[in-house]
Inverse folding.
RNA sequence: GGCCCCAUCGUCUAGCUCGGUUUAGGACGUUGCCCUCUCAAGGCAAAAACACGGGUUCAAAUCCCGUUGGGGCUACCA
């Protein structure tokens, strides 16, 4: 059997963390089995669906490296297909027209709730307000007793009692299918072999099975994954901070890190934490997906990202960081200097954005001096020492790490000061603060001209 | 409320399918130490969990039942 999976977002917002993980699981399962991965846009809710949102979801998918086979399919363009199936059910008496308006139903529902009663749609209401020209919805005629069995690859067999299930609407008065109907039809029509989705759809699955049985269609296999929760164990939402893929992209996360972190939320492979994309494709399986919900942990996510910041090729980091540098007005090219800056800063940054923030003094002379650092380290007694450093560095022909180190050694000998006593003030002079890569590395990257210039400026700041 | 799902360190998880090999392993975070020109990175170490109660069994984190807790669904939304 050909493995075909799908990701079916509704274009009513951004691609969020939970949706992204569902997409990743489906994509991985398809790729692992040499199958197809299909993207289906569930835009049957005309009021809430937007093109912009669809575009953004597609962009997020591309950014994550989740490629799909064949063109994305939009449910809004398939209404005729749904109608056909609905009519088939109608003609077979497995579905019927219902003229009760949503408003009338809302009222009945409210009444029942006020009496503390369980609300269930009753078939005899269907004809209320019936007239030849009145709009109607189509409902599936379901049995009153019996069970529906959901066979889940992750959770095993789950039974739902039919007395809990309404004659639910499959085709709305506006001619659009409801979610459950469109999904069932599409999954069949598109030859989906495995439906991997959040367990918030478990009850929907029972309804979809009812549709398949009424139509006598073959069913896909189902795998319901537990949801991703926020730190307070509530469903992940905006108030838990960033929840969309795009936000993480904008915050300086790498797509590999997002992929890696999310796939490990609910799935594992022994003790392994870091996976390349190829490894994931090779190792991913449904059996190792856990049943319990997982809590989204920003700290671990940050750690995964910092791992990729440290380990991705320098050229790749350079390419990604250049637009960010440009935004700040730092003219830069992918030259040796940028590569050196990245080499030093990647050990100290958890995100690309942080790396940019920490790199300003490499690209501009116009950086701020930290007030405390200035007061503590740029003091009058430093003037002769800075002069010695300037003197030794000026004489250097080969302005690289080791000669610079030697130059400092000479200053240490002559002043009888320890390196720390010299390096820290120099650091403040060159970077404006007390935290930076190793001082010899900083000096090498800055080059002779800028280093001397800044030491001179610092000397002036010392004499106040 | 009803129905459904879930339950190992604070968090992600290994182990559970096929009960003994477990003083329950790894990772993030936390704390301490080492390294050290600062900050990091790195190394080493520590604290930290089988929700509870019953069974079954010679033996249970592993199997069964219940309780509790958490989550989801309960629309002519998806």
């Amino acid at each position: 059997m050909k493995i075909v999976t799908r990701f079916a977002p509704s274009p009513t917002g951004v691609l969020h963390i939970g949706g992204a993980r569902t997409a990743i699981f489906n994509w991985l399962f398809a790729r692992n089995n040499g199958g197809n991965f299909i993207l289906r846009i569930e835009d049957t809710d005309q009021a809430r669906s937007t093109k912009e949102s669809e575009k953004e979801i597609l962009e997020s998918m591309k950014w994550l490296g989740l490629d799909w086979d064949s063109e994305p399919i939009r449910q809004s363009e398939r209404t005729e297909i749904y109608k056909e199936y609905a009519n088939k059910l109608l003609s077979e008496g497995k579905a019927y027209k219902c003229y009760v308006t949503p408003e009338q139903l809302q009222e009945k529902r409210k009444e029942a709730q006020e009496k503390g009663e369980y609300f269930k749609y009753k078939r005899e209401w269907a004809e209320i307000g019936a007239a030849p020209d009145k709009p109607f919805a189509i409902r599936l005629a379901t049995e009153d007793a019996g069970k529906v069995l959901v066979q889940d690859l992750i959770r095993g067999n789950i039974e739902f009692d039919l007395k809990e299930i309404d004659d639910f609407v499959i085709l709305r008065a506006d001619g659009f299918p409801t979610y459950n109907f469109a999904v069932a039809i599409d999954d069949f029509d598109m030859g989906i072999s495995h439906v991997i989705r959040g367990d918030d759809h478990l009850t929907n699955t029972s309804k979809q099975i009812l549709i398949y049985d009424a139509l006598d269609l073959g069913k896909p296999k189902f795998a319901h994954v537990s949801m991703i929760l926020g730190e307070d164990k509530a469903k992940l939402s905006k108030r838990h901070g960033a929840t969309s893929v795009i936000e993480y992209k904008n915050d300086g996360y790498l797509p590999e890190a997002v992929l890696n972190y999310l796939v490990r939320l609910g799935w594992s492979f022994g003790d392994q934490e870091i996976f390349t994309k190829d490894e994931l494709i090779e190792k991913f399986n449904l059996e190792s997906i856990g049943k319990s919900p997982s809590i989204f942990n920003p700290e671990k996510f940050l750690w995964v990202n910092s791992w990729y910041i440290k380990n991705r090729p320098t050229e790749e980091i350079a390419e990604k960081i250049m637009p960010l540098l440009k935004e700040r007005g730092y003219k830069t090219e992918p030259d040796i200097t940028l590569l050196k800056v990245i080499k030093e800063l990647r050990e100290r940054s958890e995100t690309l954005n942080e790396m940019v923030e920490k790199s300003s003094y490499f690209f501009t002379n116009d950086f701020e001096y930290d007030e405390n650092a200035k007061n503590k380290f740029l003091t009058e007694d430093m003037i002769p020492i800075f002069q010695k450093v300037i003197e030794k560095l000026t004489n250097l022909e080969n302005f690289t790490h080791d000669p610079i180190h030697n130059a400092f050694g000479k200053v240490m000998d002559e002043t009888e000061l320890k390196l720390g006593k010299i390096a820290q003030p120099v650091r403040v002079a060159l970077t404006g603060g007390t935290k930076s890569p190793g001082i010899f590395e900083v000096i090498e990257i800055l080059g002779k001209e800028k280093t001397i210039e800044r030491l001179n400026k610092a000397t002036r700041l010392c004499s106040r």
The mean pLDDT of chain A is 94. The longest strand of chain A covers residues 36-41. The CA atoms of residues 65 and 384 of chain A lie 56 Å apart.
